[in-house]
Amino acid sequence: MAISLSAAVAVFIGIYAVVEIKRSIPTDDREYMDPLPLLMRLSWPIINFFAHYIGEHLGVEYIERTKLRLRQSGLGYLMTPQQFFGVKLCSALVFALGSLWAMSMLDAPAGLVPVGFALFGFFFPEINLTDRRKKIEKEIIRMLPVYLDFITMAVEAGMNLNGALMQAVDKGPAGALNIEFSKVLRDIKAGVGKLEALRNMSDRVQVREVANLVSALAHAEKSGASVGNTLRIQADQRRVERFQRAEKLAMQAPVKLVGPLVLFIFPTTFIILFFPIVTQLMDIL
Prior knowledge:
By secondary structure, the protein is mainly α. The chain has a domain at 138-243. The chain contains ten helices and no strands. It comes from Rheinheimera sp. BAL341. Pfam families: T2SSF (PF00482).
């Protein structure tokens, strides 16, 4: 009876502590934020807990650097730098607990294995962020000529640049560049200047081709040059650069195939060719 009563009291205290901690954490207003993925939604209370109690002690330099990386990875409207640090801590906890469970299933001493997995889990979101950034950059570079063609045709048909951007967003293929141009239109509707909104996009994506486009448009606006001709030149140049990149990758393909050939294909071929010879020699000897 005493044990049951003690257990009930412990459960009550635990629930009360969790409720009080949850009350102390400010409500996360996500009205203007992107929706959370399912897995992150399930772990969001823990992430917010870490972000509230530990994120406030982060340095200003780390917060600004992480904010820039989140914007470049397309996650600027998904979480704050403090919440991203909470994601890192939550990931470290999951990896550590997973390694402990795996070692217990194998009946092996854990030792420092959970510590190693926790460190890997802590840096795993950073690795994922870097990979996501590289994929977005490649996609933007690949799709930029397509969108420039849409914008150029709309401008040459008599539309202004704002209307051309709207047409490109509506008719263009979905992807990272579509999202970025949508943000440009959203900034313009909020009262930001057209060139300033484009410069903000250039600062977000940190892609040389986009920076060149924004500089060319700014120069055309200031000098009174034809925006349509400027866009046409930019589209042709980006298309030539894309073709040159494809040629470069095609020339690099044989060099990259040497490693797999030497490590995997050639040894297997030698085994298939020489195995019958070796077996016959062994029978003779």
